Inverse folding.
C-alpha cells in the first residue's frame, strides 16, 4: 500500500545533503560550539532576507516569543516583567506556546475568536475588545498554517490604542503581507526552527526579528543570562542562545527556503484544483495582499465527518494531522484566572472539531498529491 507522510525529513536531507554535511563538518573542524561564527552569519543572512534591522538567534520558537515579550516589558515599562493587569490579545486556536509565552512574561492572555475562513485572529473582535477595555498593552497575532493575518488592520488598531505587536511567525517563515516579510511588521517577530517548520533545523531553535535598536540590545542580553557581561548581569535572563550546530544546519537550508515555499504553493494549488468541487469540505482561502506559504494545507470537514475522513485516509496510507484538537481557553494551564476570553470563541471551538491537515511535503511527487486528492474525493463522494 502506498504511504504518504505528512512530511519526509529524510527526503529533504538527501536533497540538501552536500550543503548540510559541509556545514556540520565546518563546525566539527572549528569546535566553537557556543556563539560560533555560524550563529552571527545566520542572524545576518536572515535579517537581510527579511529586511529586518536586527535578528537575534534563540534556542527555540517558544523562547523567541518569551524573549520578545520580556524585552518589550523592559523597554516599555522599565520593569523585568509585565503585570497581571497587563493584557495581551491573541488567538485561542494555536499551539500552547503562544499563550504560555504571555503567561511567562507576567501578562494575562486574552483569547479572541478567529475568522472561520482564515483561522487567524478576528480583527473585528480585537477592535471590539479594545474599545471597551483599557488594560490592553499588546497584540500577538499568529500567522497560522503559513497564512498571513490582516496586518493592515492590526497595525491600525495598535496605533489607535498605543499597543505593541509581537508576530508569532513560527509557521510562516518567508511569508509576507503586501511588500513586507512577516515578522518585520510589528515591534518584533518570533520564528521557530523546529524540524517540521518551513525552515527547520535538526532540533530546537529560533530567532527574533526587530527593527528597534533598544529591543535588540535587550534581547541580546536576555539570551545569555541577562547581561552584556555574563558575570555582571542587568536583567533576569535565560540560557537561550541559538546552538552553533543548529545555526549551521539552518544556514545550509536557508538557500532552499524560497524554492521549498514555492513547492508548497504548487502542492496547495493542486489540492485546491482537485478538491474544489468536493462537497463536505471547505478549502483554505486566498487573501488579497497575503503571501500564504502553506506550512499546512488545512481543510475544514463539515457535518462532523472529520474523524471518519481521517480514519479512511489512514487506511489508504495517507497521513493527516489535526492542528489543533483543543483551543487554549479550554486548557487547564490557562484556567484559574490566568487568562481571559472575549465572547464565546465559538469559531475556535468549531475549528478544533473540523480541521484536518493534508500531507505537505515540499518534495512530494505529483503522483502522491493525486493519490491524496483521489482518496479524499472517493470518501466524500
Amino acid at each position: 500500500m502506498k504511504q504518504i507522510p505528512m512530511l519526509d525529513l529524510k527526503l529533504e536531507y538527501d536533497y540538501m545533503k552536500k550543503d548540510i554535511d559541509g556545514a556540520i563538518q565546518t563546525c566539527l573542524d572549528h569546535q566553537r560550539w557556543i556563539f560560533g561564527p555560524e550563529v552571527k552569519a545566520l542572524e545576518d543572512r536572515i535579517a537581510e532576507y527579511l529586511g529586518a534591522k536586527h535578528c537575534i538567534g534563540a534556542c527555540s520558537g517558544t523562547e523567541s516569543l518569551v524573549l520578545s515579550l520580556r524585552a518589550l516589558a523592559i523597554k516599555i515599562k522599565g520593569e523585568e516583567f509585565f503585570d497581571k493587569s497587563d493584557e495581551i490579545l491573541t488567538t485561542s486556536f494555536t499551539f500552547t506556546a503562544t499563550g504560555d509565552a504571555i503567561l511567562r512574561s507576567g501578562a494575562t492572555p486574552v483569547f479572541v475568536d478567529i475568522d472561520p475562513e482564515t483561522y487567524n485572529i478576528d480583527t473585528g473582535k480585537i477592535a471590539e475588545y479594545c474599545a471597551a477595555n483599557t488594560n490592553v498593552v499588546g497584540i500577538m497575532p499568529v500567522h497560522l498554517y503559513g497564512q498571513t493575518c490582516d496586518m493592515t488592520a492590526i497595525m491600525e488598531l495598535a496605533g489607535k490604542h498605543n499597543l505593541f505587536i509581537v508576530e508569532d511567525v513560527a509557521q510562516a517563515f518567508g511569508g509576507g503581507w503586501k511588500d513586507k516579510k512577516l515578522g518585520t511588521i510589528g515591534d518584533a517577530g518570533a520564528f521557530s526552527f523546529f524540524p517540521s517548520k518551513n525552515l527547520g533545523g535538526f532540533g530546537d531553535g529560533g530567532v527574533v526579528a526587530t527593527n528597534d535598536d533598544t529591543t535588540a540590545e535587550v534581547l541580546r542580553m536576555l539570551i545569555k543570562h541577562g547581561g552584556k557581561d555574563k558575570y555582571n548581569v542587568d536583567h533576569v535572563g535565560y540560557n537561550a542562545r541559538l546552538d552553533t550546530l543548529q545555526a549551521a544546519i539552518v544556514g545550509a537550508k536557508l538557500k532552499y527556503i524560497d524554492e521549498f515555499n514555492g513547492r508548497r504553493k504548487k502542492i496547495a494549488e493542486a489540492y485546491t484544483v482537485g478538491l474544489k468541487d468536493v462537497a463536505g469540505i471547505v478549502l483554505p482561502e486566498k487573501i488579497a495582499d497575503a503571501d500564504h506559504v502553506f506550512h499546512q494545507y488545512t481543510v475544514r470537514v463539515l457535518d462532523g465527518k472529520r474523524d471518519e475522513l481521517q480514519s479512511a485516509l489512514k487506511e489508504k496510507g495517507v497521513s493527516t494531522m489535526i492542528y489543533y484538537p483543543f483551543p487554549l481557553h479550554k486548557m487547564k494551564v490557562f484556567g484559574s484566572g490566568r487568562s481571559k476570553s472575549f465572547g464565546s470563541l465559538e469559531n475556535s471551538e468549531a475549528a478544533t472539531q473540523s480541521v484536518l491537515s493534508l500531507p505537505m511535503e515540499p518534495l512530494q511527487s505529483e503522483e502522491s498529491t493525486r493519490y491524496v486528492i483521489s482518496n479524499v474525493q472517493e470518501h466524500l463522494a
Remarks:
- The longest strand covers residues 54-58.
- The domain at 9-254 is CATH 3.40.640.10 (Aspartate Aminotransferase; domain 2).
- Residues 70 and 105 are 6 Å apart (CA to CA).
- The chain has two domains: 9-254, 258-380.
